[in-house]
């Protein structure tokens, strides 16, 4: 079971629906015992950084998250705000402290050309700059759906953790990875087959996919509808 | 997708008569295969009586929709926005309520974020006597100027503007480009053009001449086979960057292994 953290943020159900379409069992929760039982943790989210962190803090989830992910090495996928939470602080409407797992800050998007509008909202090409299991089978320039006004800026010593970038009048970090910790700025749950393929890669990494494949050996993932059986042919 | 009592209907100058689809989830299935980039669902029912039916339909289609889903119509409170998001909407579209209750938009943007707030603006062209914003499904004049109103809703926390011209709706003449250009130049947030598309060239015009960030249509996408795919091919040939999905690179099969397309 993959735990999807419920901290009152936006489009939780879209994430649940995507995992459901892939045939992967999930639990929407903010209970630390559930987190401990899960095989992986997904932190989705759209919304404001400060309010999101405050909610995580009031639900007393910051300690348990560190315990499960940093100490026990449980796979983590942060989507949008779930990526931004990883850094030390955010400058979105004041200064707010983040989880601090990754040296860097969250800053406003400042495109060099006014034709690039903010929020960065819509589909954009993503350049994969470093091999990452999350992007396996997706080619070098998959397309994903973005919606954000702020971006992650990593400290120089963490630059090697970037796995993908995109361009919106300025270079934007699209994905990071180190160990089993993944963060994506875009919304895989809303990026059609590229997004579903990425999520199925994550499921496979957690081992949750294997369990499911054993239950339904003929179809592999529920993703069969998109990927023609076990392998994606994109 | 314009829905009345849970059924997809045709919209002509904001009159909704012909039913196009009895099952809207089927339409979503097709748009998903035809690589539509985003789906907007508007409830234009005359009242709230069959709202439960709409919720049901919404939940069903949200389960099949893996592109952003915007939901509008009869959205008048934070509680209603929360309800729609819990049923699977990614963004909500506000219209009448923004005019009647000026506090709603800033409050909702503070809670859900601006990226979640689409403001839909319906405009009537008084033929030589200027433009005017209308609310309540194009029935009630407001006296508001669309350009000033667009700037105002941006200040109040809108993340996107969904611009519809009542006179063009279902009229097959293309977007009102003068109106579109004017709104695009007034605001810095993305503007989605809507209303009047009858050829793929109208979409190109909306982007190149109107300056829209995205172009939307309803009726034509329902009546044409492979509609959204064809529209995107046309846009690409016109030199516009679109999310391309060439069927040569993708092979999709259903569960049983037979080809879907």
Describe the structure.
The complex is a heterodimer of chains A (234) and B (261). Chain A is α/β, with parallel strands linked by helices and 234 residues long. Chain A has eight helices and 14 strands. Chain A is globular and about 50 Å long. The model of chain A is unreliable at 211-234 (pLDDT under 50). By secondary structure, chain B is α/β, with parallel strands linked by helices. Chain B has helices at 24-33, 51-62, 78-86, 96-100, 104-112, 146-156, 177-186, 200-208, 219-223, 227-237; strands at residues 2-4, 7-12, 15-21, 39-43, 69-72, 91-94, 117-125, 131-135, 140-141, 160-165, 191-194, 214-215. In chain B, strands 1, 2, 3, 4, 5, 6, 7, 8, 9, 10, 11 and 12 form a twelve-stranded mixed sheet that branches. Mean pLDDT of chain B is 89; it is low at 246-261.
Beta-strand fraction estimate of chain B = 15-25%
> Major β-sheet of chain A, in short?
8 strands, mixed
Q: What average pLDDT do the residues of chain B reach? A: 89
The biggest beta sheet of chain B is recorded as:
12 strands, mixed
Query: Structural class, from helix and strand content of chain A?
Result: alpha/beta
Number of strands of chain A: 14
Shape of chain A: globular
Largest interface between protein chains, with number of residues from each side: A-B, 41 and 39 residues
Gyration radius of chain A (Cα, Å) is 17 Å
Classify the beta-strand content of chain A into a percent band: 25-35%
Indicate the overall shape of chain B: globular
């Amino acid at each position: 079971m993959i735990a999807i953290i419920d901290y009152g943020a936006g489009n939780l159900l879209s994430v649940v629906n995507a995992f459901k379409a892939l045939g992967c069992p999930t639990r929407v929760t903010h209970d630390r015992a559930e987190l401990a039982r899960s095989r992986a943790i997904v932190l989705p989210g759209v919304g404001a950084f400060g309010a999101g962190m405050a909610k995580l803090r009031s639900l007393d989830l910051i300690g348990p998250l560190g315990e499960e992910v940093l100490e026990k090495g449980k796979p983590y996928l942060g989507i949008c705000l779930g990526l931004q939470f990883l850094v030390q602080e955010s400058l979105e409407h004041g200064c707010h402290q983040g989880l601090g797992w990754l040296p860097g800050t969250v800053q406003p998007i400042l495109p060099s050309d006014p034709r690039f509008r903010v929020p960065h909202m819509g589909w954009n090409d993503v350049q994969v700059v470093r091999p990452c299991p999350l992007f396996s089978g997706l080619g070098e320039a998959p397309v994903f759906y973005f919606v954000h006004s702020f971006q992650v800026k990593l400290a120089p010593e963490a630059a090697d953790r970037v796995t993908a970038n995109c361009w919106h009048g300025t270079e934007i970090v699209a994905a990071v990875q180190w160990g089993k910790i993944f963060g994506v700025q875009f919304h895989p749950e809303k990026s059609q087959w590229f997004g579903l393929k990425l999520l199925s890669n994550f499921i496979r990494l957690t081992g949750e996919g294997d369990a499911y494949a054993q239950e339904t050996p003929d179809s592999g993932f529920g993703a069969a509808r998109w990927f023609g059986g076990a392998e994606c042919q994109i | 997708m314009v829905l009345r009592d849970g059924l997809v209907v045709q919209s002509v100058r904001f009159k909704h008569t012909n039913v196009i689809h009895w099952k809207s989830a089927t339409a979503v299935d097709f748009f998903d295969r035809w690589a539509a980039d985003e789906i907007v669902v508007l409830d234009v029912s005359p009242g709230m009586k069959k709202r439960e039916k709409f919720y049901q339909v919404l939940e069903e289609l949200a389960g099949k929709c893996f592109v952003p889903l915007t939901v509008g119509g009869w959205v008048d409170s934070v509680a209603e926005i929360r309800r729609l998001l819990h049923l699977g909407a990614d963004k909500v579209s506000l219209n009448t309520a923004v005019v009647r209750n000026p506090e709603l938009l800033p409050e909702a943007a503070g809670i859900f974020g601006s990226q979640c707030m689409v403001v839909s603006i319906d405009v009537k062209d008084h033929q030589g006597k200027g433009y005017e914003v209308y609310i309540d499904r194009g029935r009630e004049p407001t006296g508001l100027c669309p350009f000033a109103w667009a700037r105002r809703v941006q200040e109040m926390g809108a993340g996107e503007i969904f611009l519809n011209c009542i006179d063009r709706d279902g009229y097959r003449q293309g977007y009102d480009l003068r109106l579109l250009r004017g709104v695009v130049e007034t605001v810095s947030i993305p503007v989605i053009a809507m209303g009047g598309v009858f050829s793929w060239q109208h979409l190109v015009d909306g982007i190149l001449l109107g300056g829209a960030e995205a172009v939307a249509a309803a009726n034509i996408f329902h009546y044409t086979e492979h509609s959204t795919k064809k529209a995107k091919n046309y846009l690409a040939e016109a030199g516009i960057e679109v999310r391309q999905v060439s069927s040569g690179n993708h092979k999709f099969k259903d569960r049983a292994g037979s080809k879907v397309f």
